[in-house]
Amino acid sequence: MIAIDWGSSSLRAWRLDANGAAVDTRRADLGALGHGAATPALLADALQGWDDTELLLCGMVGARGGWSDAPYLPCPATPGALAQALQEVPTQGTALQGRRARIVPGVRGGSQALPDVMRGEETQIVGLLSQCPDAAQVCLPGTHSKWVSLQAGAIASVHTAMTGESYALYRQHSMLARSMPPTSEPEAFDADAFAAGVRRSGEPGGLLHHLFGVRTLGLFDRLGPAQAPAYLSGLLIGHEVRAQLPLRAPVHLIGGPTLGARYRQAFDLLGIDSHLHGEDLAACGLFHLTR
Amino acid sequence: MIAIDWGSSSLRAWRLDANGAAVDTRRADLGALGHGAATPALLADALQGWDDTELLLCGMVGARGGWSDAPYLPCPATPGALAQALQEVPTQGTALQGRRARIVPGVRGGSQALPDVMRGEETQIVGLLSQCPDAAQVCLPGTHSKWVSLQAGAIASVHTAMTGESYALYRQHSMLARSMPPTSEPEAFDADAFAAGVRRSGEPGGLLHHLFGVRTLGLFDRLGPAQAPAYLSGLLIGHEVRAQLPLRAPVHLIGGPTLGARYRQAFDLLGIDSHLHGEDLAACGLFHLTR
């Protein structure tokens, strides 16, 4: 089978053998939204040479504006319920003719009055549960970080924080960017400045006030331009994590190595035990949803 | 005399009689920064036809990159100390020759480790103190909102929140903008949506999480596109004000009518007594600094 995690900015695909082991992997800078009827042809291109008939997809490919809108499954959502709710997309008359394509639905948490959602992360969590059935607290950092509570092997709640996107906004478009090197230059990560930002996030005054400190610390030479991006990152991640306290440790972190290391550092500073898992849990989750 | 409040995006000038009454006013979309040696000529242009010899300026005109860098006065700062610290700028050989130009210094608060600053707002506060000597708590909403505590007629502390700039960033550049009408269209203010945002800001989860609600509320048709900007504004202003609690009421608000009305609504929702003052307090403050 072919496992595909197709998000809003990139596509990752794994060719899996009958035991779920990846025999090949691919990655493309191709977002899942806005292609309309051209979607199957784009996907066939991305999978060229892989002739497996079984395709299972997760992520924004199932969102409004993606290939086919797969309605959200409400919490609590078990891996079994997700497997039951796989949505088949017709491929006849398309570049994918002769193959079966199914999309994993997203999951909806929050309250009726204030819903929260995820698409793609639920599949990584299925992968996590197959390896750590007792996992209770998951953090998936990113543009829109997801915090997920698990209860008795089911996704019990979803909670999103706009941390990564906020970092990019302040880093690139705000007055704070003037205190930092141009984003075109390669950026070294300053772990001490990051830690100072995480510590600052625990003081009174609120995020909107703490952010202005990036400017005044620069103005009075307390923070160099090269340190300012890491300090900003520490402020935002610190606020994100503290808003989740108290947490049920260990927190299972699912993410790439760079962001994973930053969050581990923040957890360490806050005295929270955490385990880092790679993003390949998506392939593992897609495989388990077909069992 | 001529009183001038010259900030980073606009210049406002008042021609005052011997009693401090404005006999004429002007406004120009002319920022104070980055003009270098051309500054006196630009100012002479803006004041054309006003032949008074006495010029008193406040705002970013005294910042690094402005006409002349006027060092910050530390807290606690009294109106008398500000008057003593007026910084004269030589005008000989410039388009302002024969006139005396002085700049009000900014004020620096915060701690040694984490300074905070303002430029221009201190002069509005001098104007406020001349009318309300007992004022204790001041809020000056804007791109960078300033919160100032007064003690015994002196500026005791300065605290900045990046509320207005954050609103503009999320409104124009974030994923949330997709849930809202284009910024090119005229925008009606929805007081109910604003109030919902202010209430939401008091719930657990933190600002980075509350912001994502703008997206999910739109996704599930709980918030229309036309209401979303006011909800976002309420979220941000709610977080700003709550981070200041407990406040010493009445809070003296200094600002234009639009933003002033929003903050008054937020204060009303939080049960805080407030008084709104107009931005002409700058002219009043400049007059008092020459007494």
Automatic annotation (TrEMBL), chains A, B:
Record key words, sorted: Kinase, Transferase
Pfam families to which the protein is assigned, alphabetical: DGOK
Gene3D superfamilies xref list: 2-keto-3-deoxy-galactonokinase, C-terminal domain, 2-keto-3-deoxy-galactonokinase, substrate binding domain
A molecular function (GO) term: 2-dehydro-3-deoxygalactonokinase activity
Top-level lineage group: Bacteria
GO biological process per UniProt: D-galactonate catabolic process
Designated name of the protein: 2-dehydro-3-deoxygalactonokinase
Species name: Pseudoxanthomonas winnipegensis
Lineage: Bacteria, Pseudomonadati, Pseudomonadota, Gammaproteobacteria, Lysobacterales
